[in-house]
Design goal:
The complex is a heterodimer of chains A (160) and B (145). By secondary structure, chain A is an alpha+beta fold. Chain A is built from four helices and eight strands. A six-stranded antiparallel β-sheet of chain A has the order 1-2-6-7-8-5. A two-stranded antiparallel sheet of chain A has the order 3-4. The chains are: A alpha+beta (160), B alpha+beta (145).
Chain lengths: 160, 145
């Protein structure tokens, strides 16, 4: 059995075990209150509950696009972690977000991110935000993530 | 209200009412049609504890809000514009310090506007992040959705 594959499988299993912990260690994610709900190889799902302190459009009581930026940026970074054969920290190089329609007031927003290609130094992701399904998206995102050189293992507590 | 308040006063009144602006703790120093946005450092803005870096989502939210604020300042729309899309380039790690932002409206059309914004910390020439976005102007009489 290829050891690098089992390392990724182990990491995915660990991410599934610690879905709450993945956002609890990130102060800004704790502030926005989103949660990770599902992890597959190269894919991560999450939910951003409606929250009044994130409203950007006071009249319509709709969450600000920035909360969607936070959700999709963070889920994309996690999707990289669920895709890289060896664990590396990643840093967002760029993130483009297209807003297709306003979110409904008072409803949770589901986020889904997929890391669809990895090179030696860059991981490419796309992501979606919606209420029900990807057929009716609120926003889509596309991002490139720099794969950092190995550094001492830290906050994520990934055993090697 | 547009008769009595300056554009800058209208913007300040608007920002005070927006929960996400208060959650970020962001404020704007407005001088006429010129504005610098300030995001004082707070622990809750951190994205990575190990390296004490600001969260990309917090930086992106701040830059999007900076762009919207500048656009409001130089346009005559009654309601803030709606974002069509944004691209944020993350150029450097945002350290555990105050973040500043300035935006420039590249093109102000009747229905749409193109805006760029930059965020920096101790050195203006070393930007932390840059945004480019398109916004839909909310002309009065048109519905918001």
């Amino acid at each position: 059995m290829d050891e690098s594959i089992s390392s990724l499988e182990k990491r995915i299993a660990l991410m599934r075990e610690h879905m709450d912990g993945m956002t609890e260690v990130v102060p800004w994610a704790r502030e926005t209150g989103f949660k990770v709900t599902r992890v597959e190889r190269g894919q991560v799902w999450g939910v951003q509950p409606f929250a009044e302190h994130l409203v950007g459009d006071v009249d319509a009581q709709v969450i600000h696009g920035g909360a969607i930026t936070t959700l999709l940026d963070n889920l994309s970074g996690m999707a990289c972690a669920a895709a890289l054969e060896e664990f590396r920290f990643v840093a967002t190089l760029d993130l483009r977000i297209d807003y297709m329609r306003p979110a409904d007031s008072g409803r949770d927003i589901i986020g889904e991110a997929e890391c669809y290609h990895v090179t030696k130094s860059v991981a490419f992701c796309r992501a979606w935000a919606y209420h029900e399904s990807r057929d009716k998206v609120i926003a889509t995102a596309q991002g490139a993530f720099a794969i950092n050189k190995p550094r001492p293992k830290a906050s994520l507590g990934v055993p090697e | 209200m547009s008769e009595t308040l300056t554009r800058g006063q209208q913007l300040e009144a608007f920002l005070e009412r927006v929960p996400i602006v208060q959650t970020l703790g962001m404020r704007c120093d407005i001088k006429g049609d010129d504005m610098t946005a300030v995001l004082p450092f707070q622990k809750k803005l951190i994205g990575n504890f190990t390296i004490k870096a600001l969260h990309g989502g917090a930086i992106g939210t701040f830059l999007e809000m900076t762009a919207m604020a500048q656009l409001f300042l130089v346009s005559d729309v009654e309601r803030p514009a709606r974002t069509i899309n944004i691209t944020v380039d993350y150029l450097r790690q945002g350290r555990a310090e105050d973040l500043y932002g300035r935006a420039r409206v590249i093109k102000l059309g009747r229905r749409m506007a193109s805006v760029t914004a930059e965020a920096w910390q101790s050195e203006r020439d070393k930007p932390v992040a840059a945004l480019h976005g398109h916004f839909l102007l909310n002309r009065s009489g048109e519905t918001s959705s």
